[in-house]
Design a protein that fits this description.
- Helix 10 runs antiparallel to helix 11.
- This protein folds into 2 domains: 236 residues, Spore Coat Polysaccharide Biosynthesis Protein SpsA, Chain A; 116 residues.
- The protein is α/β, with parallel strands linked by helices.
- Strands 1, 2, 3, 4, 5, 6, 7, 8, 9 and 10 form a 10-stranded mixed sheet that branches.
Amino acid sequence: MEQKNASNRTPANSFTGDNYPFKLTVIVPCYNVENYLATSLRCLERQWDDDSLEMVFINDCSTDGTINMLREFCERHPDNTQLIDKPENQGVSRARNDGLSVARGKWIVFLDPDDALKDGAYRYLYEHFITDDIQILSFKTNIIEKADGFEKILSEGKLDEYSADLIEWEGSGTEFFKKYLAKVCWIFFYSHQLITDLGVRFRNLSYLEDNMFNMDLLLQDYPLRVRRVKCRCHYWIHHNYSLSNIRYSSAEKNSRMLSNIITGVGAMQQKKEETADKELKARIAWNQTDSLQSIAPLALRSDMSCKKISGMRKQLMEWKVYPYSGGAKGKIYDLFLHFPASLMVVRPLIKVFDRFAK
């Protein structure tokens, strides 16, 4: 693992209290994102007008021009960047964990390299809403369905004028989980000390890894306080992923994704079984069901054996989190999973449909 701009520095895990060199570390895992990365890098340059922000980039063995863009950026900002260049692709969870291992900010935030931020968003959130009595800050995102014309949207984005009324809610980690969505990690500031004290890291998943990271933090027996604010400082940009990504991915890749979903739902099941809180059990069950929305399209476009799919469905039934949705479409999908042998007939037809749907 090549690591630049990080030599002769104090190990991240040796900082405590107010000894952190930076106020905030942003961790950015990157894999083959040369088409989107420039926007994120420009946004990061506009977050703080001094060196209070540390930027840690992890190149997860990209095969395009990502590493060259990151090297050039870090050379322009040598005092507050770290670049980890991995010799093999290990996935987003490992990449984020590598970033956590070297981060030197008192607070931690994650950013996906194809998303963006309003100018000065991180500084604004830190200076107005971070106080010593909280360990997690939650903010909101703007969902952009298409990347076309996004530069104009970004240039016009303004931060809210500060007001105490922007604080929407405060409470414990468990109460936050019961009340709000915690499916992604890039709309939170996390106390570095909290992550260190609890020893929480991203699980080795390629799906639901954000969800489980938040559950592992929020649902611990720890005096944790969360503050949620109304500010929409982040832009989550859709790049024709989701179903289209499933359609045009290989059958082998869809099978791996399907296995990862079941693994993640199983980890949630363990959390559900560990608590006696009925409201919390119900909330975890909702998260499980919500996480299963894409399993039927994945199964139809995978090379997973009928026997394995049948066993998967049986396991979900035992966990009482299946069928995953109602309505006519959900019932049709359920038929394919209830009678896995039907996939042998349907899969060739799906291939033809997807070919013409391109």
